[in-house]
Amino acid sequence: MWLTDRLANLVSGLGGPRDKSTGNLHVHVPRARAELDAAYRDNWIARKVVDIVPFDMLREWRAWQAPPEVAAALAASEERLCLRDRLLRGLRLARLHGGAALLIGDGAPDPGLPLDPETLGQGGLRYLHVLPRGQIQAGALERDPLSPWFGEPRGYTVAGGQAVHPSRVVRLLGAALPDDALGDGWGDSVLQALLEAIDQATAASAHIAAMLPEAKQDVISVPGLSQHLSTEDGTAALTERFAYAARMKGLFGMLLLEGDGRSPEGERYQQKQLDFSGLPEVARLFLQVAAGAADIPVTRLLGQSPAGLNATGESDIRNYHDHVAARQTVELTPAVARLDRLLIRDALGRDEPGLRYAWRPLAQASEREKAEVGRLKAETAALLAREGVVPAGALSRGVEGWLSSADLFPGIAAAFRPAG
After folding, report:
1. Residue 68 region, left (φ>0) first, then alpha (ψ -120 to 50), else beta?
2. Reduced to 3 DSSP states, what percent helix, strand and coil does the chain have, rounded to the nearest 5?
3. Crossing angle, helix 191-211 and helix 33-42, to 10 degrees?
4. 132 and 34 housed in the same domain
5. Domain boundary, last residue among 237, 255, 273
6. How many CB atoms lie within 10 A of CB 64?
7. Do residues 210 and 333 both lie within one domain?
8. Most Cβ neighbours (<10 Å): which of 28, 78, 346, 372?
9. Which of 175, 255, 172, 168 is nearest to 220 (CA)?
10. From CA 344, how far away is CA 341, in angstroms rounded?
11. What SS3 class is residue 221?
12. Do residue 379 and residue 359 come from a single domain?
């Protein structure tokens, strides 16, 4: 016997045979890559949904918590490898197609062998290549919980059949799958679940736009219209007559008709206008649904200020910034951890296990706010110096690092470097 556990109401029919919603059934229909590409290229909402989040995740980049010379060396390696640009393109492709990869090149003759960070010297990284999902094939997932590659593909194959070890690949995923076994080592496109809401928002605007030419229509009742149209000569004469009337109206703003409009022999003129009140709210509602489905505030998606009395949108933007910061910490940081270890050796020629970085906040402080924060930090540093709870050398290096990265005094980092 089958037991069901759901809300039912015998009076209203809710949950029973009379409830039409009981026939609803979710069926997964994968979107073809051609459809996803077409939506990205031709639909502005789909393009923004794919592009905005990766751009905001990398917009302010990151700050290494290290002495100025170390941070400068790391920044130089990032710039030489175009890391920020490669990550941005990879994240966009991952959101669009469900997955992408960064191929780490160190000049090894056989990329099928593991890339051991201990063998990488300063300047050892040669390139970072972005590979769309169609150009790199993921192998079977590692199912051994004791393996360091558990949950990741055991290997990859690129164009030409070349095998690539997973230690040489930064794997970027799109929308997560409920079970890795359902996919081919990648995820879903973010548009897979959003495209319906995006299409509805686009269609709502398109239908309203299509109504604009019909907003005002001239309606003329012509006695004996069927008789006039029954012959070619009558049709031609009637067409010419009203074409001339339209030209008269366009040139002189008036329309000449025969008769008084009341008698059977007279023509009657009317003008019909469509009522557009309420339609903007309908279009805005569909845009809000699409924005909510994409986890992007309407103010960010549309690039407009919020409407309404006392509406500032600050809470929406703050929540969105928190959302992006969480994705940086939970998704992006683990994804590039393997690459960052190689990047440190590429920049410094050695391992620095204690080296850390922080993602810069998306909300940019004003000059007044920067000055206020600087004052508070300066007072804190002075207090620590007076109390002697921090060694003077360590405190001096901390203040130097803060002033060099705080953008309070341009050029101050150079003043800390020893002369000569």
Report:
1. alpha
2. 50, 10, 35
3. 50
4. yes
5. 273
6. 23
7. yes
8. 346
9. 255
10. 5
11. strand
12. no
Q: Is 382 helix (H, G, I), strand (E, B) or coil?
A: helix
All residue ranges of the chain with pLDDT < 70 are: 1-6, 9-15, 17, 21, 180-182, 214-215, 251-267, 269-274, 276, 304-313, 405, 407, 411, 413-414, 417-420
* Total-model pTM: 0.76
pLDDT digits (tens, 9 = 90+) for 290-301: 999 999 998 898
Please report how the helices 44-58 and 191-211 are oriented relative to each other, as an axis angle in degrees rounded to 10.
130
- What does the pLDDT look like over 91-140, one tens digit per residue? 999 999 999 999 999 988 999 999 999 989 999 999 999 999 999 999 98
Say whether both 108 and 231 belong to one domain. no
Dihedral pair phi/psi, residue 182, rounded to 5°: -75, -20
Alpha-carbon gap, residue 364 to 70, rounded angstroms: 25
Distance between CA 112 and CA 14 in Å, rounded? 59
The domain tally of the chain equals: 3
Residues 306 and 182 in one domain: yes
Contact 85, 338 (CB under 8 A): no
Residues 205, 221 within the same domain: no
Range(s) of the domain holding residue 237: 217-273
User: Are residues 372 and 420 both part of a single domain?
Assistant: yes
